[in-house]
Amino acid sequence: MVVLTADQVRAWDRFTIQHEPISSINLMERAAKCCTEWLCTNLPSSQSSYYIFCGKGNNGADGLAIARMLYEVDRQVDVFILEFGSSGTAEFQQNLQRLHPLPVGIHYIQTGSGFPIVPPGVIIIDALLGTGTTRPVEGEMRALIELINASPNPTISIDMPSGLFADQSTIPFSSVRAAFTLTFQCLKPAQLLAENAAAIGDLQVMDIGLLPRYLNQVQPEYELTGKTLSQSIIRPRNNFSHKGEFGHALLLAGSFGKMGAAVLAARACLRCGPGLLSCFVPEKGISIMQMAVPEAMVVRSTNSDHEKTNANDEHLGGDLPPLHQYQTIGCGPGIGTNPATVQLFKELIANFRKPMVLDADALNILSQNQDLFPSLPPFSILTPHPKEFERLAGKSANETERINKARELAKKHQLIFVLKGHHSLIAMPGGSAYFNMSGNASMAKGGSGDVLTGMLTGLLCRGYTPEQAALLGVHLHGLAGEFASADLGMESVLAGDISDHIAKAFIYLTS
Ligand SMILES: NC(=O)C1=CN([C@@H]2O[C@H](COP(=O)(O)OP(=O)(O)OC[C@H]3O[C@@H](n4cnc5c(N)ncnc54)[C@H](OP(=O)(O)O)[C@@H]3O)[C@@H](O)[C@H]2O)[C@@H](O)CC1
Ligand SMILES: Nc1ncnc2c1ncn2[C@@H]1O[C@H](COP(=O)(O)OP(=O)(O)O)[C@@H](O)[C@H]1O
Ligand SMILES: [K+]
Question: Is 162 annotated as contributing to ligand binding?
Protein backbone atom coordinates (compact mmCIF):
# COMPACT_ATOMS: atom_id res chain seq x y z
CA MET A 1 0.00 0.00 0.00
CA VAL A 2 1.22 3.50 -0.79
CA VAL A 3 0.09 6.98 0.20
CA LEU A 4 -0.11 9.52 -2.61
CA THR A 5 -1.25 13.10 -2.94
CA ALA A 6 -4.28 14.09 -5.03
CA ASP A 7 -2.00 15.26 -7.86
CA GLN A 8 -0.08 11.99 -7.82
CA VAL A 9 -3.30 9.94 -7.91
CA ARG A 10 -4.56 12.04 -10.81
CA ALA A 11 -1.27 11.36 -12.61
CA TRP A 12 -1.67 7.63 -11.84
CA ASP A 13 -5.16 7.72 -13.40
CA ARG A 14 -3.71 9.41 -16.50
CA PHE A 15 -0.80 6.97 -16.66
CA THR A 16 -3.19 4.01 -16.56
CA ILE A 17 -5.50 5.60 -19.14
CA GLN A 18 -2.52 6.07 -21.47
CA HIS A 19 -0.61 2.84 -20.94
CA GLU A 20 -3.20 0.13 -20.25
CA PRO A 21 -4.78 1.68 -22.33
CA ILE A 22 -8.30 2.37 -21.05
CA SER A 23 -10.61 5.31 -21.52
CA SER A 24 -11.27 7.62 -18.58
CA ILE A 25 -14.96 6.66 -18.58
CA ASN A 26 -14.13 2.95 -18.49
CA LEU A 27 -11.69 3.43 -15.63
CA MET A 28 -14.51 5.18 -13.82
CA GLU A 29 -16.79 2.20 -14.61
CA ARG A 30 -14.25 -0.01 -12.83
CA ALA A 31 -14.19 2.33 -9.83
CA ALA A 32 -17.99 2.45 -9.66
CA LYS A 33 -18.22 -1.34 -10.00
CA CYS A 34 -15.86 -1.81 -7.04
CA CYS A 35 -18.00 0.53 -4.93
CA THR A 36 -21.28 -1.09 -5.99
CA GLU A 37 -19.97 -4.57 -5.21
CA TRP A 38 -18.73 -3.36 -1.82
CA LEU A 39 -22.15 -1.83 -1.05
CA CYS A 40 -24.01 -4.99 -2.08
CA THR A 41 -21.67 -7.23 -0.10
CA ASN A 42 -21.39 -5.19 3.05
CA LEU A 43 -24.78 -3.59 3.57
CA PRO A 44 -27.80 -5.75 4.46
CA SER A 45 -30.10 -6.28 1.50
CA SER A 46 -32.96 -4.93 3.64
CA GLN A 47 -31.19 -1.57 3.27
CA SER A 48 -31.84 -1.26 -0.42
CA SER A 49 -32.72 2.41 -0.91
CA TYR A 50 -30.13 5.02 -1.72
CA TYR A 51 -29.98 8.82 -1.93
CA ILE A 52 -26.89 9.64 -3.98
CA PHE A 53 -25.63 13.22 -3.69
CA CYS A 54 -23.47 14.24 -6.65
CA GLY A 55 -21.26 17.19 -7.50
CA LYS A 56 -20.44 17.93 -11.13
CA GLY A 57 -16.82 16.78 -11.14
CA ASN A 58 -15.61 13.23 -11.58
CA ASN A 59 -16.53 12.35 -8.01
CA GLY A 60 -20.11 13.18 -8.93
CA ALA A 61 -19.60 11.18 -12.13
CA ASP A 62 -18.70 8.18 -9.93
CA GLY A 63 -21.94 8.77 -8.02
CA LEU A 64 -23.96 8.67 -11.26
CA ALA A 65 -22.28 5.44 -12.40
CA ILE A 66 -22.90 3.86 -8.98
CA ALA A 67 -26.56 4.94 -9.22
CA ARG A 68 -26.90 3.10 -12.54
CA MET A 69 -25.19 -0.02 -11.24
CA LEU A 70 -27.25 -0.09 -8.05
CA TYR A 71 -30.42 0.24 -10.11
CA GLU A 72 -29.26 -2.72 -12.23
CA VAL A 73 -29.15 -4.87 -9.09
CA ASP A 74 -32.66 -3.81 -8.08
CA ARG A 75 -31.86 -1.13 -5.55
CA GLN A 76 -34.16 1.88 -5.20
CA VAL A 77 -32.11 4.93 -6.18
CA ASP A 78 -32.62 8.69 -6.15
CA VAL A 79 -29.88 11.03 -7.37
CA PHE A 80 -29.51 14.63 -6.17
CA ILE A 81 -27.21 16.82 -8.24
CA LEU A 82 -25.93 20.01 -6.67
CA GLU A 83 -25.86 22.73 -9.31
CA PHE A 84 -22.96 25.09 -8.96
CA GLY A 85 -22.65 26.80 -12.28
CA SER A 86 -20.46 24.52 -14.37
CA SER A 87 -21.86 22.06 -16.87
CA GLY A 88 -19.79 19.28 -15.31
CA THR A 89 -16.87 17.20 -16.53
CA ALA A 90 -17.14 15.13 -19.71
CA GLU A 91 -17.41 11.96 -17.61
CA PHE A 92 -20.18 13.55 -15.55
CA GLN A 93 -22.14 14.41 -18.69
CA GLN A 94 -21.59 10.95 -20.14
CA ASN A 95 -22.76 9.16 -17.00
CA LEU A 96 -25.76 11.48 -16.74
CA GLN A 97 -26.77 10.52 -20.29
CA ARG A 98 -26.42 6.83 -19.41
CA LEU A 99 -28.66 7.33 -16.39
CA HIS A 100 -31.40 9.33 -18.10
CA PRO A 101 -33.19 6.40 -19.81
CA LEU A 102 -33.47 4.51 -16.50
CA PRO A 103 -36.33 4.99 -14.04
CA VAL A 104 -34.01 6.54 -11.47
CA GLY A 105 -35.17 9.77 -9.83
CA ILE A 106 -32.82 12.61 -10.88
CA HIS A 107 -33.28 15.78 -8.83
CA TYR A 108 -31.41 19.04 -9.22
CA ILE A 109 -30.62 21.08 -6.14
CA GLN A 110 -30.60 24.71 -7.29
CA THR A 111 -29.27 27.60 -5.29
CA GLY A 112 -31.79 28.54 -2.65
CA SER A 113 -34.10 25.58 -3.31
CA GLY A 114 -35.05 23.21 -0.50
CA PHE A 115 -32.94 20.18 0.25
CA PRO A 116 -34.55 16.74 0.41
CA ILE A 117 -35.41 15.15 3.73
CA VAL A 118 -33.74 11.75 3.80
CA PRO A 119 -36.30 9.13 4.87
CA PRO A 120 -35.32 6.67 7.62
CA GLY A 121 -33.47 3.58 6.42
CA VAL A 122 -32.20 5.21 3.22
CA ILE A 123 -28.44 5.02 2.69
CA ILE A 124 -26.69 8.24 1.73
CA ILE A 125 -23.93 8.08 -0.87
CA ASP A 126 -21.73 11.16 -0.76
CA ALA A 127 -20.29 11.84 -4.23
CA LEU A 128 -20.21 15.63 -4.00
CA LEU A 129 -16.45 16.24 -3.95
CA GLY A 130 -13.46 13.90 -4.12
CA THR A 131 -9.76 14.51 -4.52
CA GLY A 132 -10.53 17.64 -6.57
CA THR A 133 -11.42 19.64 -3.45
CA THR A 134 -9.41 22.84 -3.68
CA ARG A 135 -10.98 25.15 -1.10
CA PRO A 136 -13.12 25.06 2.04
CA VAL A 137 -16.77 24.33 1.36
CA GLU A 138 -19.20 27.19 1.64
CA GLY A 139 -22.70 28.25 0.57
CA GLU A 140 -25.03 25.55 -0.76
CA MET A 141 -22.31 22.89 -0.70
CA ARG A 142 -21.67 23.49 2.97
CA ALA A 143 -25.39 23.58 3.78
CA LEU A 144 -25.88 20.27 1.99
CA ILE A 145 -22.96 18.72 3.87
CA GLU A 146 -24.50 19.91 7.12
CA LEU A 147 -27.81 18.34 6.12
CA ILE A 148 -26.07 15.02 5.42
CA ASN A 149 -24.27 15.18 8.77
CA ALA A 150 -27.47 16.06 10.64
CA SER A 151 -29.32 13.07 9.25
CA PRO A 152 -29.08 9.82 11.25
CA ASN A 153 -28.83 7.75 8.04
CA PRO A 154 -25.56 5.93 7.36
CA THR A 155 -23.38 7.86 4.92
CA ILE A 156 -20.87 6.26 2.59
CA SER A 157 -18.39 8.68 1.01
CA ILE A 158 -16.85 7.96 -2.35
CA ASP A 159 -13.07 8.46 -2.41
CA MET A 160 -13.07 11.29 0.17
CA PRO A 161 -15.68 12.63 2.59
CA SER A 162 -16.78 15.73 0.68
CA GLY A 163 -15.07 18.89 1.85
CA LEU A 164 -12.00 17.08 3.20
CA PHE A 165 -8.72 18.04 1.57
CA ALA A 166 -6.86 14.96 0.40
CA ASP A 167 -3.34 16.16 1.21
CA GLN A 168 -3.61 18.30 4.32
CA SER A 169 -5.69 19.16 7.36
CA THR A 170 -9.14 20.63 6.76
CA ILE A 171 -9.66 21.91 10.31
CA PRO A 172 -11.33 24.31 11.09
CA PHE A 173 -13.55 23.85 8.02
CA SER A 174 -16.33 21.31 7.71
CA SER A 175 -16.74 18.11 5.72
CA VAL A 176 -19.06 15.14 5.48
CA ARG A 177 -18.77 12.73 8.41
CA ALA A 178 -19.03 9.29 6.86
CA ALA A 179 -19.61 5.88 8.39
CA PHE A 180 -17.48 4.41 5.59
CA THR A 181 -15.17 5.95 3.01
CA LEU A 182 -14.49 3.91 -0.12
CA THR A 183 -11.24 5.33 -1.41
CA PHE A 184 -9.55 4.40 -4.67
CA GLN A 185 -6.34 2.40 -5.03
CA CYS A 186 -4.18 4.01 -2.34
CA LEU A 187 -4.23 6.08 0.80
CA LYS A 188 -4.24 9.87 0.69
CA PRO A 189 -2.26 11.75 3.39
CA ALA A 190 -5.33 13.23 5.08
CA GLN A 191 -6.75 9.74 5.59
CA LEU A 192 -3.95 8.99 8.07
CA LEU A 193 -4.58 11.97 10.35
CA ALA A 194 -6.23 11.27 13.70
CA GLU A 195 -8.18 14.54 13.45
CA ASN A 196 -9.97 13.16 10.35
CA ALA A 197 -10.98 9.84 11.91
CA ALA A 198 -14.56 10.96 12.61
CA ALA A 199 -14.99 12.28 9.05
CA ILE A 200 -13.59 9.21 7.32
CA GLY A 201 -15.14 6.49 9.47
CA ASP A 202 -14.15 3.01 8.42
CA LEU A 203 -11.73 3.40 5.50
CA GLN A 204 -11.89 0.84 2.69
CA VAL A 205 -9.39 0.90 -0.16
CA MET A 206 -10.81 -0.23 -3.51
CA ASP A 207 -8.36 -1.76 -5.98
CA ILE A 208 -9.45 -0.23 -9.29
CA GLY A 209 -6.53 -1.72 -11.24
CA LEU A 210 -4.29 1.33 -11.72
CA LEU A 211 -1.01 0.16 -13.26
CA PRO A 212 1.54 -0.67 -10.51
CA ARG A 213 4.52 0.33 -12.65
CA TYR A 214 3.57 4.01 -12.27
CA LEU A 215 4.91 3.70 -8.72
CA ASN A 216 8.47 3.25 -10.02
CA GLN A 217 8.49 6.83 -11.24
CA VAL A 218 6.83 8.60 -8.33
CA GLN A 219 8.44 10.03 -5.19
CA PRO A 220 5.77 9.80 -2.49
CA GLU A 221 5.41 12.69 -0.06
CA TYR A 222 4.96 10.07 2.67
CA GLU A 223 5.95 6.44 2.86
CA LEU A 224 4.48 3.67 5.00
CA THR A 225 6.08 1.21 7.36
CA GLY A 226 5.15 -2.39 6.83
CA LYS A 227 6.21 -6.01 6.84
CA THR A 228 8.36 -5.83 3.71
CA LEU A 229 10.25 -2.77 4.90
CA SER A 230 10.85 -4.27 8.35
CA GLN A 231 11.97 -7.56 6.83
CA SER A 232 14.50 -5.70 4.70
CA ILE A 233 15.96 -4.17 7.88
CA ILE A 234 16.07 -7.15 10.25
CA ARG A 235 19.43 -8.88 10.51
CA PRO A 236 19.85 -12.46 11.75
CA ARG A 237 22.09 -13.32 14.71
CA ASN A 238 25.20 -15.05 13.53
CA ASN A 239 25.63 -18.59 14.94
CA PHE A 240 29.06 -17.75 16.36
CA SER A 241 28.08 -14.38 17.77
CA HIS A 242 28.65 -13.43 21.40
CA LYS A 243 27.11 -10.74 23.55
CA GLY A 244 29.96 -8.34 22.88
CA GLU A 245 28.81 -8.03 19.27
CA PHE A 246 25.40 -6.66 20.19
CA GLY A 247 26.47 -3.68 22.21
CA HIS A 248 25.89 -2.37 25.68
CA ALA A 249 22.97 0.03 26.21
CA LEU A 250 22.42 2.45 29.05
CA LEU A 251 18.96 3.44 30.16
CA LEU A 252 18.36 6.56 32.26
CA ALA A 253 14.88 6.09 33.64
CA GLY A 254 12.67 6.21 36.70
CA SER A 255 12.13 8.26 39.82
CA PHE A 256 10.28 7.59 43.08
CA GLY A 257 6.78 6.40 42.15
CA LYS A 258 7.70 5.99 38.50
CA MET A 259 10.06 3.04 38.59
CA GLY A 260 7.51 1.17 36.50
CA ALA A 261 8.49 3.29 33.49
CA ALA A 262 12.11 2.21 33.96
CA VAL A 263 11.16 -1.46 34.34
CA LEU A 264 8.93 -1.37 31.23
CA ALA A 265 11.61 0.31 29.13
CA ALA A 266 14.33 -2.05 30.36
CA ARG A 267 12.33 -5.20 29.62
CA ALA A 268 11.37 -3.96 26.17
CA CYS A 269 14.98 -2.99 25.45
CA LEU A 270 16.21 -6.47 26.33
CA ARG A 271 13.59 -8.05 24.03
CA CYS A 272 15.19 -6.24 21.06
CA GLY A 273 18.52 -7.98 21.17
CA PRO A 274 21.21 -5.83 22.83
CA GLY A 275 24.18 -7.72 24.28
CA LEU A 276 24.05 -5.96 27.65
CA LEU A 277 21.82 -3.44 29.35
CA SER A 278 22.71 -1.22 32.28
CA CYS A 279 20.20 1.00 33.99
CA PHE A 280 21.04 4.23 35.74
CA VAL A 281 18.23 4.73 38.21
CA PRO A 282 17.81 6.72 41.46
CA GLU A 283 19.13 5.08 44.64
CA LYS A 284 15.63 4.22 45.83
CA GLY A 285 14.88 2.41 42.60
CA ILE A 286 17.89 0.13 42.52
CA SER A 287 16.36 -2.85 44.33
CA ILE A 288 13.12 -2.54 42.33
CA MET A 289 15.11 -2.67 39.12
CA GLN A 290 17.27 -5.57 40.21
CA MET A 291 14.28 -7.66 41.23
CA ALA A 292 12.03 -6.79 38.29
CA VAL A 293 14.67 -7.10 35.56
CA PRO A 294 17.39 -9.50 36.67
CA GLU A 295 18.84 -9.55 33.14
CA ALA A 296 19.79 -5.86 33.43
CA MET A 297 22.64 -4.40 35.46
CA VAL A 298 22.23 -1.33 37.59
CA VAL A 299 24.78 1.45 37.83
CA ARG A 300 24.75 4.09 40.54
CA SER A 301 25.91 7.65 40.52
CA THR A 302 29.67 7.99 40.68
CA ASN A 303 29.32 11.12 42.79
CA SER A 304 31.62 10.79 45.78
CA ASP A 305 29.69 13.49 47.59
CA HIS A 306 27.27 11.25 49.51
CA GLU A 307 25.17 14.15 50.71
CA LYS A 308 24.55 15.25 47.13
CA THR A 309 23.74 11.69 46.04
CA ASN A 310 21.41 11.08 48.99
CA ALA A 311 19.61 14.36 48.43
CA ASN A 312 18.76 13.02 45.00
CA ASP A 313 17.92 9.49 45.99
CA GLU A 314 14.36 9.77 44.67
CA HIS A 315 15.46 11.35 41.38
CA LEU A 316 18.27 10.82 38.97
CA GLY A 317 21.11 13.17 39.83
CA GLY A 318 24.72 13.28 40.85
CA ASP A 319 27.35 12.37 38.31
CA LEU A 320 26.94 10.20 35.25
CA PRO A 321 28.77 6.91 35.06
CA PRO A 322 31.57 6.75 32.45
CA LEU A 323 29.74 6.78 29.10
CA HIS A 324 32.34 5.56 26.61
CA GLN A 325 31.39 1.88 27.03
CA TYR A 326 27.82 2.34 25.82
CA GLN A 327 26.68 2.03 22.19
CA THR A 328 23.64 4.10 22.91
CA ILE A 329 21.56 5.62 25.68
CA GLY A 330 17.82 5.78 26.17
CA CYS A 331 16.75 8.63 28.42
CA GLY A 332 13.50 9.95 29.77
CA PRO A 333 10.83 7.50 30.94
CA GLY A 334 9.70 8.53 34.42
CA ILE A 335 12.75 10.68 35.26
CA GLY A 336 10.81 13.84 36.17
CA THR A 337 12.19 17.35 35.87
CA ASN A 338 13.89 17.79 39.26
CA PRO A 339 16.75 20.35 39.00
CA ALA A 340 19.30 17.60 39.72
CA THR A 341 17.89 15.59 36.81
CA VAL A 342 17.92 18.61 34.52
CA GLN A 343 21.60 19.12 35.36
CA LEU A 344 22.30 15.45 34.72
CA PHE A 345 20.55 15.68 31.35
CA LYS A 346 22.68 18.66 30.34
CA GLU A 347 25.81 16.72 31.24
CA LEU A 348 24.56 13.76 29.25
CA ILE A 349 24.10 15.89 26.13
CA ALA A 350 27.51 17.47 26.59
CA ASN A 351 29.29 14.14 27.04
CA PHE A 352 27.62 11.56 24.82
CA ARG A 353 27.88 12.20 21.10
CA LYS A 354 26.35 9.05 19.59
CA PRO A 355 22.67 8.86 18.57
CA MET A 356 20.41 8.27 21.56
CA VAL A 357 16.71 7.92 22.29
CA LEU A 358 14.95 10.77 24.10
CA ASP A 359 11.42 10.43 25.42
CA ALA A 360 8.99 11.72 28.04
CA ASP A 361 10.69 13.91 30.68
CA ALA A 362 13.89 14.15 28.64
CA LEU A 363 11.70 15.91 26.05
CA ASN A 364 10.08 18.05 28.73
CA ILE A 365 13.51 19.13 29.94
CA LEU A 366 14.45 19.89 26.35
CA SER A 367 11.29 22.01 25.99
CA GLN A 368 12.40 24.14 28.92
CA ASN A 369 15.98 24.33 27.62
CA GLN A 370 15.53 24.89 23.90
CA ASP A 371 19.13 26.06 23.58
CA LEU A 372 20.12 22.39 23.95
CA PHE A 373 18.54 21.44 20.61
CA PRO A 374 21.61 22.17 18.47
CA SER A 375 23.78 20.18 20.90
CA LEU A 376 21.80 16.93 20.64
CA PRO A 377 23.80 14.15 19.02
CA PRO A 378 22.81 14.05 15.34
CA PHE A 379 20.44 11.22 14.38
CA SER A 380 19.07 10.90 17.90
CA ILE A 381 15.49 9.64 18.00
CA LEU A 382 12.92 11.82 19.81
CA THR A 383 9.55 10.23 20.53
CA PRO A 384 7.04 12.89 21.64
CA HIS A 385 3.34 12.29 22.04
CA PRO A 386 1.20 15.25 20.86
CA LYS A 387 1.39 17.14 24.19
CA GLU A 388 5.14 16.67 24.45
CA PHE A 389 5.56 17.87 20.88
CA GLU A 390 3.46 20.94 21.65
CA ARG A 391 5.80 21.73 24.55
CA LEU A 392 8.78 21.30 22.24
CA ALA A 393 7.54 23.15 19.18
CA GLY A 394 4.58 25.28 20.28
CA LYS A 395 0.87 24.93 19.49
CA SER A 396 -0.13 23.73 16.03
CA ALA A 397 -3.42 24.71 14.42
CA ASN A 398 -3.84 21.19 13.04
CA GLU A 399 -2.02 17.92 12.41
CA THR A 400 -0.54 18.95 9.07
CA GLU A 401 1.12 21.91 10.76
CA ARG A 402 2.40 19.62 13.52
CA ILE A 403 3.83 17.15 11.02
CA ASN A 404 5.45 19.93 8.99
CA LYS A 405 7.05 21.36 12.13
CA ALA A 406 8.45 17.93 13.02
CA ARG A 407 9.81 17.50 9.48
CA GLU A 408 11.46 20.92 9.61
CA LEU A 409 13.00 20.32 13.04
CA ALA A 410 14.24 16.90 11.92
CA LYS A 411 16.00 18.46 8.95
CA LYS A 412 17.28 21.52 10.82
CA HIS A 413 18.83 19.61 13.74
CA GLN A 414 19.49 16.29 11.94
CA LEU A 415 17.19 14.39 14.29
CA ILE A 416 14.56 11.69 13.92
CA PHE A 417 11.13 12.59 15.27
CA VAL A 418 8.53 9.95 16.05
CA LEU A 419 5.19 11.75 16.50
CA LYS A 420 3.32 9.07 18.39
CA GLY A 421 -0.30 8.28 17.71
CA HIS A 422 -2.51 5.76 15.92
CA HIS A 423 -0.42 6.17 12.76
CA SER A 424 2.83 7.43 14.29
CA LEU A 425 4.71 9.74 11.93
CA ILE A 426 8.46 9.23 11.59
CA ALA A 427 10.28 12.31 10.26
CA MET A 428 13.81 11.67 9.04
CA PRO A 429 16.76 14.10 8.96
CA GLY A 430 16.96 13.69 5.17
CA GLY A 431 13.41 14.98 4.76
CA SER A 432 11.49 11.74 4.18
CA ALA A 433 8.51 10.88 6.38
CA TYR A 434 6.78 7.58 7.14
CA PHE A 435 3.40 6.79 8.61
CA ASN A 436 3.36 3.67 10.76
CA MET A 437 0.59 1.23 9.91
CA SER A 438 0.74 -1.20 12.83
CA GLY A 439 -0.78 -0.97 16.30
CA ASN A 440 -4.23 -0.51 17.71
CA ALA A 441 -6.21 1.10 20.52
CA SER A 442 -5.28 -1.64 23.01
CA MET A 443 -2.02 0.31 23.26
CA ALA A 444 -3.72 3.52 24.38
CA LYS A 445 -2.56 2.97 27.97
CA GLY A 446 0.11 4.46 30.22
CA GLY A 447 3.49 2.85 29.71
CA SER A 448 3.16 1.98 26.00
CA GLY A 449 5.53 4.80 25.13
CA ASP A 450 8.09 3.61 27.71
CA VAL A 451 8.08 0.26 25.93
CA LEU A 452 8.81 2.01 22.63
CA THR A 453 11.73 3.91 24.18
CA GLY A 454 13.22 0.67 25.42
CA MET A 455 12.76 -1.02 22.05
CA LEU A 456 14.40 1.80 20.10
CA THR A 457 17.31 1.84 22.56
CA GLY A 458 17.72 -1.92 22.19
CA LEU A 459 17.67 -1.76 18.39
CA LEU A 460 20.16 1.11 18.22
CA CYS A 461 22.43 -0.80 20.60
CA ARG A 462 22.04 -3.98 18.56
CA GLY A 463 23.67 -2.20 15.61
CA TYR A 464 20.84 -0.87 13.48
CA THR A 465 21.30 2.62 12.06
CA PRO A 466 19.08 5.26 13.69
CA GLU A 467 16.76 5.35 10.66
CA GLN A 468 16.51 1.56 10.63
CA ALA A 469 15.94 1.45 14.40
CA ALA A 470 13.16 4.03 14.14
CA LEU A 471 11.37 2.33 11.23
CA LEU A 472 11.73 -1.19 12.59
CA GLY A 473 11.12 -0.23 16.21
CA VAL A 474 7.92 1.73 15.64
CA HIS A 475 6.50 -0.94 13.34
CA LEU A 476 7.52 -3.77 15.67
CA HIS A 477 6.01 -1.95 18.67
CA GLY A 478 2.66 -1.70 16.89
CA LEU A 479 2.83 -5.34 15.79
CA ALA A 480 3.57 -6.41 19.37
CA GLY A 481 0.47 -4.48 20.44
CA GLU A 482 -1.58 -6.29 17.80
CA PHE A 483 -0.30 -9.69 18.93
CA ALA A 484 -0.96 -8.75 22.56
CA SER A 485 -4.55 -7.73 21.81
CA ALA A 486 -5.12 -10.89 19.77
CA ASP A 487 -4.22 -12.89 22.90
CA LEU A 488 -5.71 -10.68 25.58
CA GLY A 489 -8.42 -8.57 23.99
CA MET A 490 -8.50 -4.85 23.30
CA GLU A 491 -9.35 -3.73 26.83
CA SER A 492 -6.96 -5.82 28.88
CA VAL A 493 -3.58 -5.39 27.23
CA LEU A 494 -1.05 -3.82 29.60
CA ALA A 495 2.08 -2.02 28.47
CA GLY A 496 4.09 -4.96 29.80
CA ASP A 497 2.06 -7.27 27.56
CA ILE A 498 3.24 -5.28 24.53
CA SER A 499 6.77 -6.01 25.69
CA ASP A 500 5.96 -9.67 26.23
CA HIS A 501 4.69 -9.90 22.64
CA ILE A 502 7.74 -8.37 20.96
CA ALA A 503 9.00 -11.92 20.49
CA LYS A 504 5.89 -12.88 18.49
CA ALA A 505 6.30 -9.77 16.36
CA PHE A 506 9.93 -10.69 15.60
CA ILE A 507 8.94 -14.28 14.79
CA TYR A 508 6.19 -13.01 12.47
CA LEU A 509 8.66 -10.79 10.63
CA THR A 510 11.37 -13.41 10.33
CA SER A 511 9.38 -16.50 9.41
N1 LIG B 1 -10.90 8.52 -14.80
C2 LIG B 1 -10.87 9.37 -13.77
O3 LIG B 1 -10.59 10.55 -13.93
C4 LIG B 1 -11.21 8.84 -12.46
C5 LIG B 1 -11.65 9.72 -11.45
N6 LIG B 1 -12.14 9.28 -10.28
C7 LIG B 1 -12.89 10.19 -9.41
O8 LIG B 1 -12.59 11.53 -9.72
C9 LIG B 1 -12.50 12.30 -8.55
C10 LIG B 1 -11.75 13.54 -8.80
O11 LIG B 1 -12.53 14.25 -9.72
P12 LIG B 1 -12.28 15.78 -10.09
O13 LIG B 1 -10.82 15.98 -10.28
O14 LIG B 1 -13.16 16.10 -11.21
O15 LIG B 1 -12.67 16.53 -8.77
P16 LIG B 1 -13.92 16.45 -7.77
O17 LIG B 1 -13.41 15.98 -6.47
O18 LIG B 1 -15.06 15.75 -8.36
O19 LIG B 1 -14.28 18.01 -7.64
C20 LIG B 1 -14.88 18.65 -8.77
C21 LIG B 1 -14.65 20.10 -8.80
O22 LIG B 1 -15.23 20.74 -7.69
C23 LIG B 1 -14.68 22.04 -7.57
N24 LIG B 1 -14.44 22.31 -6.19
C25 LIG B 1 -13.31 22.13 -5.47
N26 LIG B 1 -13.47 22.45 -4.20
C27 LIG B 1 -14.75 22.85 -4.08
C28 LIG B 1 -15.52 23.32 -3.01
N29 LIG B 1 -15.00 23.43 -1.79
N30 LIG B 1 -16.78 23.64 -3.23
C31 LIG B 1 -17.33 23.54 -4.46
N32 LIG B 1 -16.64 23.09 -5.52
C33 LIG B 1 -15.37 22.77 -5.33
C34 LIG B 1 -13.42 22.03 -8.38
O35 LIG B 1 -13.57 22.82 -9.52
P36 LIG B 1 -13.33 24.39 -9.49
O37 LIG B 1 -14.62 24.99 -9.00
O38 LIG B 1 -12.20 24.64 -8.53
O39 LIG B 1 -13.02 24.74 -10.88
C40 LIG B 1 -13.24 20.56 -8.75
O41 LIG B 1 -12.55 20.38 -9.95
C42 LIG B 1 -11.87 11.33 -7.57
O43 LIG B 1 -12.03 11.72 -6.23
C44 LIG B 1 -12.62 10.05 -7.92
O45 LIG B 1 -13.85 10.05 -7.23
C46 LIG B 1 -12.27 7.84 -10.09
O47 LIG B 1 -13.49 7.49 -10.65
C48 LIG B 1 -11.15 7.06 -10.74
C49 LIG B 1 -11.10 7.36 -12.22
N1 LIG C 1 -4.92 3.84 19.21
C2 LIG C 1 -3.63 3.53 19.02
N3 LIG C 1 -3.23 2.90 17.89
C4 LIG C 1 -1.93 2.60 17.69
N5 LIG C 1 -0.94 2.89 18.57
C6 LIG C 1 -1.27 3.52 19.69
C7 LIG C 1 -2.61 3.87 19.99
N8 LIG C 1 -2.63 4.49 21.20
C9 LIG C 1 -1.35 4.54 21.64
N10 LIG C 1 -0.53 3.95 20.74
C11 LIG C 1 0.94 3.85 20.82
O12 LIG C 1 1.31 3.69 22.20
C13 LIG C 1 2.36 4.58 22.54
C14 LIG C 1 1.86 5.56 23.62
O15 LIG C 1 2.91 6.42 23.96
P16 LIG C 1 2.77 7.51 25.12
O17 LIG C 1 1.58 8.35 24.87
O18 LIG C 1 4.09 8.17 25.25
O19 LIG C 1 2.49 6.60 26.38
P20 LIG C 1 3.15 6.64 27.83
O21 LIG C 1 3.72 8.02 28.02
O22 LIG C 1 2.03 6.38 28.77
O23 LIG C 1 4.17 5.57 27.86
C24 LIG C 1 2.80 5.27 21.25
O25 LIG C 1 3.86 4.58 20.65
C26 LIG C 1 1.55 5.17 20.37
O27 LIG C 1 1.86 5.15 19.00
K1 LIG D 1 -17.11 12.28 -1.83
Answer: yes
